[in-house]
Amino acid sequence: MRELDQKQTMDLLNSIFECELAGVVRYTHYSLMVTGSYRISMVDFFKEQASESLLHAQKVGEILTGLEGRPSRKISSVEDTDKYSVKDFLAQSLAHEAKALGLYKKLFETVSNANSFLEEFARHMISEEETHNLELQQMLCDFSE
């Protein structure tokens, strides 16, 4: 086992925390803005994604405080593209989930062979984020041109 890089780990956890909180805002906004024939199913889908992002942020925050760190009070940027179709929301969601996946992969690289708990946590979260990415890609198939 190698020594855990505490600073890099904390920085990555805070970046993940901020990204997950941005997901709460993003998905809540989408659930309110979605219109059209997909509205009923998509409102529930986006609400579930917002709840899951909050749960992820809380887990990461607990890990941060457990490592004697402080969770950030910031959130990652949530840009408004002025595009409000279901296809646009799904494409923006896919980009957001890809960003989160990248952060969890960086965390995994940082903690591998240094902290078994964090390594397993990162591995689990990578699996969840990869599943989200696949689901979003499948959902976008309805909108391919």
Explain this structure to me?
This protein has 145 residues and is mostly helical. It has a single domain, classed as Ferritin. The chain has four helices and no strands. The mean pLDDT is 95.
Helix content: over 70%
Number of domain units = 1
Order of helices and strands: HHHH
Shape: elongated
Termini Cα gap: 50 Å
Mean pLDDT: 95
**Main sheet properties:** none
Could you name the ranges where pLDDT drops below 50 across 5 or more consecutive residues? none
Strand-residue fraction?
under 5%
User: What is the gyration radius calculated from CA atoms?
Assistant: 16 Å
Question: Structural class from helices and strands?
Answer: mainly alpha
Helices, strands, pairings?
Elements: H1 6-33, H2 39-66, H3 86-111, H4 116-140
Helix pairs in contact: 1-2, 1-3, 3-4
